[in-house]
Design brief:
about 30% strand; 2 helices; alpha+beta; 8 strands
């Protein structure tokens, strides 16, 4: 299938799946259970720190669960450098648009998430004080 509409083949899944800069994963190869061109429905995967959108990809008869933000970065930026993780710039782990993702260290990602949480708590405190 072509790379039209902003979709690009996912490395390791070329001809089977592609990803878009808007954070969608598409099936490019047909099967009895899945039509060509179908956008995969994200599932929620909880971790100790946050929750992420994930999809199940199938290759050579084996299912592989992948987090969408990692697939987007792999597809459009390249493999994750050693010592780095994929981070959501706005702190929203469901916002998997390429423009919202970056590689950074785990330490900086945790620091940012703690800061975001403190900002939300301050906003909630101010909202509670408004009558």
């Amino acid at each position: 299938m072509s790379e039209g509409n902003g979709f690009k083949p996912i490395p390791g899944y070329e001809g089977i799946y592609s990803a878009s800069e808007s954070g969608e994963i598409r099936r490019d190869a047909g099967s009895p259970m899945c039509k060509i061109g179908r956008i995969l429905k994200p599932r929620i995967q909880k971790s100790a720190w946050t929750t992420y959108h994930r999809v199940n990809l199938c290759r050579d008869g084996k299912n592989n669960t992948q987090r969408i933000h990692r697939l987007i970065m792999l597809t459009f930026v390249g493999p994750c450098p050693d010592g780095k993780v994929v981070c959501h710039k706005n702190g929203n782990s469901f916002d998997n648009r390429l423009e919202n993702l970056k590689y950074d260290t785990q330490k900086e990602n945790v620091r940012f998430n703690i800061w975001m949480q403190s900002q939300q708590e301050q906003t909630e405190t101010v909202d509670d004080q408004v009558v």
